[in-house]
Design brief:
Belongs to the aspartate/ornithine carbamoyltransferase superfamily. OTCase family. The chain is α/β, with parallel strands linked by helices. 41% of the residues lie in helices and 15% in strands. The strands form 2 sheets. Strands 7-6-5-8-9 form a 5-stranded parallel β-sheet, with helices on one face. It is globular. The termini are close together.
Length: 306
């Protein structure tokens, strides 16, 4: 039976831990996996522009011996041309998996309903699971176990925040989310994360006060204005500048590392000084996108879809 990756919410802790271990092995011994996707093709459907997601999937699939077909739904005039149900069903006639970077999570759900092959969420309005897995892979490399560091997310509550929180809750990590008033995560995501944390030993903190980040090992942030958001940057600056990741906040919290999923707006949500410093994990996160995604592909395509 085929399995999709839309959110990670339905993946048990043991399975996620095994996925991280697999990602480490793929990274350390890529030669052992060079024919894993031999003879398989993956369609990558992108409604939104991308650097890290597109390149890491394309090169990663190639390194596994597979073939990626890239579909730009804007340039190819696919967006709105036909229903997502029909696109999923048709793509599954030829492809062994579908990777989709879309505006709406509903699009992924509709494609997954009809596609007979795995559908992988490469980003939507609600979640960014591939990024989150790469982030926890990075934490595992640096701290040996993902349960060891305290991770504090500071900034706008968005799709990246959601996936970091949900994955951390399942893995048993302490995750603190500090957002300005009016920019909190969705209430139903918080409820889901708290339920998952209670089942798996995760520890969650939600606050508007930067004091909640004190004692954290890692500070994480994301852009203040997400792709497609028309909010003027000056307006965002007024709200978020107190939440900027900078040297002063690192010293106040005692954190040893900073993370950002990129693209980063230098000297807005994070200073250039931190991006280019030894405490920055940004490039390791970017590199680990490929290894995490390859582990996902191996896991989902290990057996033929039924």
């Amino acid at each position: 039976m085929k399995k999709d990756l839309l959110t990670f919410c339905d993946w048990p802790q043991a399975e996620l831990q095994a996925l991280l271990e697999l990602a480490l092995r793929v990274k350390q011994k890529p030669q052992d996996y060079g024919r894993t996707l031999e003879g398989k093709s993956v369609v990558a459907l992108f409604e939104k522009p991308s650097l890290r997601t597109r390149v890491s999937f394309d090169i990663g699939i190639n390194r596994l011996g597979g073939h990626m077909v890239y579909l730009d739904s804007q340039a190819g005039k696919l967006s709105g041309r036909e229903a997502a149900h029909d696109m999923g069903a048709n793509l599954a006639c030829w492809a062994d998996a579908i990777v989709a970077r879309v505006y709406s999570h509903k699009t992924l759900e509709q494609m997954a309903e009809t596609a007979r092959v795995p559908v992988i969420n490469a980003l939507c309005d609600l979640y960014h699971p591939c990024q989150a897995l790469a982030d926890y892979l990075t934490l595992k490399e640096v701290y040996n176990e993902v349960q060891e560091p305290v991770l504090a997310y500071v900034g706008d509550g968005n799709n990246v925040t959601h996936s970091l929180l949900l994955l951390g809750a399942i893995l048993g990590t302490e995750v603190r989310v500090i957002t300005p008033k009016g920019h909190e995560i969705a209430a139903w995501i918080r409820d889901k994360a708290e339920n998952l944390a209670s089942q798996n030993g995760g520890r969650l903190v939600f606050s508007q006060d930067l004091a909640a980040a004190e004692g954290a090992d890692v500070l994480y942030t994301d852009t203040w204005v997400s792709m497609g958001d028309k909010t003027p940057i000056e307006q965002a600056r007024e709200v978020f500048m107190p939440y900027q990741l900078n040297r002063a906040l690192m010293e106040r919290t005692g954190a040893g590392h900073v993370m950002h999923c990129q693209p980063a707006h230098r000297d807005l949500e994070i200073t250039s000084e931190l991006i280019d410093s030894e405490c920055s994990l940004l490039l390791r996160q970017a590199e680990n996108r490929m290894h995490a995604q390859n582990a996902i592909l191996i896991s989902l395509l290990g057996q033929p879809a039924s």
